[in-house]
Amino acid sequence: MADNGNAKGGSGAYTINLENFSKRLKVFYDHWKEHKSDLWSSSDAIAIATPPPSDDLRYLKSSALDIWLLGYEFPETIIVFMHTQIHVLCSQKKANLIGTLKKAANEAVGAGIVLHVKTKNGDGSDLMDDIVQAARNQLKSDKPVVGHIAKEVPEGKLLETWTEKLSGSGLRLVDVTSGFSELFAVKDTAEITCVKKAAYLTSSVLKNFVVPKLEKVIDEEKKVSHSSLMDDTEKAILDPLKVKVKLKPDNVDICYPPVFQSGGKFDLKPGASSNDEYLYYDSASVIICAIGSKYSSYCSNVARTYLIDATPTQSKAYETLLKAHEAAVEQVKPGNQMSAVYQAAVAVIERDAPELLPNLTKSAGTGIGLEFRESGLNLNAKNDRRIKQGMVFNVSLGLHNVQAETTSEKTKQFSLLLADTVLVNERGHEILTAPCSKAVKDVAYSFNEDDDDAAEVKIESKTIAVPTKATLRSDNQEMSKEELRRQHQAELARQKNEETARRLAGVGSGSGEGRGPARASNELVAYKNVNDVPFVRDLVIQVDQKNEAVLLPIYGSMVPFHVSTVKSVTSHQDNRTCTIRIFFNVPGMPFSNDSKLNSQGAIYLKEITFRSKDPRHSSEVVQQIKTLRRQVASRESERAERATLVTQEKLQIGNNRMKMMKLSDVWIRPAFGGRGRKLTGNLEAHFNGFRYSTSRSDERVDIMYGNIKHAFFQPAEKEMITLLHFHLHNHIMVGNKKTKDVQFYVEVMDVVQTDLILMRLKKSSVRGIGRTE
């Protein structure tokens, strides 16, 4: 029976869209007739057998045909298409639904639907004989050619019996996979809508769930496994309301289990999985995230790579891959050969970083739709098929196992991956997963405190202004203004260095890395007496965090050295042995002012080398020494800075009955130090000064009114931000940084972009995208 253009079965639980069925059946028959010899292997009939349902994620041409033509997958169903008849072998329930399509099939292609209903306990053998005989009678040929999907292995008793019947029937069997690949390649309007909804869900999950989740894990330094992240992300996909996407959960599914990889173990193949190891986010680490979701069985995909305190090699590799991916996407337009997409990426790698060419993936992706990887639509160097309007591609490009300049097992090799779902339209292409930014400023996280003061990053000997949260000027400034700013910054840096040198002149020169003031060696005390040295059973290098000492095994005894006496430490692994070299500060170097030593005849240790067969312990020890040195140097530097501060009056806090003026969600510069994502805070005006604070209890700054020398306000006119700048009489501490200038600002461009996105979403909802189904 038909109702409003839909065919309903007897129970009314399922309906088939008659308009879609008629239109697509006609498209199928016309395509078969037009390309019978080249794509359909000159087949006179086409037999499709759909296997029983499975809990595994799989992509089959037979299932794709069912969904494309009928709107649902019909498991354990055999359909044989002939020119004037369509024979269907199925259960009674399916027959009731398919039977409602008889009139539509006859009107669309002039073919009558013949139903063969299999009993519950029957094997359908007799019915199969009837179908084979009908094929002989219909085709009127000595040896009719029957097309089938050769790569699909028969599953279940019904399909195994059917395969035996076909093989013993004397009919000539040919593979028609190429025909179906071409048939499914170009999507109609309804299919494109489904792909867009799937892509919107995918990008929303990555942007609104995965990225905040990763930032929180790193910020709070939690231990979370890749598999745990996979499970949480899968739940977010299956419940779209979690990411504020109004799609019915019944219509969505995952394309594959979400993939999270880090810690030096990467697999860029489509079948990769998330292991049970913890997410690794230390310095120079790389995190790969890949997510695919389906809407009404149509797939979409996105993959991003996130860099933590990236090394120069990692930064260059990512910049190059990003350019290559953008060049590949640019070639996805009607009329181009599919090979041109991959060749565009190769050309960028050869031009900018030829040493990375062996690490490049062998293709730039595949077609995507009802199948996650549509056969015949590979974007590799050999595919000369033409790109057509209506095709959809998963443009995926990666660099695998690139060597880094680090020695750690988890960072010495890294991989990068970028993927987007791209629709081919009349204007060229549309990136459906574009809301997930892959720009360097959005995927590179820096937790190194020294990087907060740097306004620029040098890549490939070219100075590029990096638009971070601390950027205070638009990239579109004139060159003259930029040069003036740089000169001013250089002058401020020179003055700062001179001031620091004068202050520390009587104390000693800077430490080996210039991180803070160095103390005379006779002031460095790790243990007051020999009894305080901890007893260790094994003669291996130990790091005493509490007493800030490094214990070294020398001639059968553990000899302590204060960590401030260590200038640098390196490790090198060769075959099965790991070499650790420790360099110390000695007179004539950073401790050149140690003429006051009581023991003028003291002998100093300049360098010591250890060899170990345990590379894991060696790596841990080196990392612990470096971390402890960094902490001690930072503390000493901050202590010296605070010692020169002018004492400020105490801030008088307004009571709750008074309504205090407050600016919400503003950024501060200089930013607070420490690991973790930078947070916005509130600037409050009290009786005698301002107080700026974030949600973290240790991030708070008080600025007295009497200490403000100049105050500037910059409105957002031809600028990216609205800015409030205070120039102070006396220095204050912002976190662990000493400064006379404090800025509070709001990024207006973020607000504008958010408004634009909301406007686009409202327009899209009118066209049916993002609307509740």
TrEMBL record:
Chain coiled-coil ranges: none
Keywords per UniProt: Chromosome, DNA damage, DNA repair, DNA replication, Nucleus, Transcription, Transcription regulation
Cell location: Nucleus; Chromosome
Role this protein plays: Component of the FACT complex, a general chromatin factor that acts to reorganize nucleosomes. The FACT complex is involved in multiple processes that require DNA as a template such as mRNA elongation, DNA replication and DNA repair. During transcription elongation the FACT complex acts as a histone chaperone that both destabilizes and restores nucleosomal structure.
The organism's taxonomic lineage, starting at the top: Eukaryota, Viridiplantae, Streptophyta, Embryophyta, Tracheophyta
Region span, Disordered: 475-518
Domain FACT complex subunit SPT16 N-terminal lobe: 16-180
UniProt main location, coarse: nucleus
Presence of the UniProt keyword Transcription in the record: yes
Record's subunit section: Component of the FACT complex.
Family: Belongs to the peptidase M24 family. SPT16 subfamily.
Xref: SUPFAM superfamilies: Creatinase/aminopeptidase
Domain FACT complex subunit SPT16 middle: 541-692
GO biological process assignments: DNA repair; DNA replication
Compositionally biased tracts (Basic and acidic residues): 475-502
Name of protein: FACT complex subunit
Keyword Transcription appears in the UniProt entry: yes
Database matches in Pfam families: FACT-Spt16_Nlob, Peptidase_M24, PH_SPT16, SPT16
Gene Ontology CC terms: FACT complex
Matching InterPro entries: Creatin/AminoP/Spt16_N, Creatinase/aminopeptidase-like, FACT-SPT16_Nlobe, Fact-SPT16_PH, FACT_SPT16_M, Pept_M24, Spt16, Spt16_M24
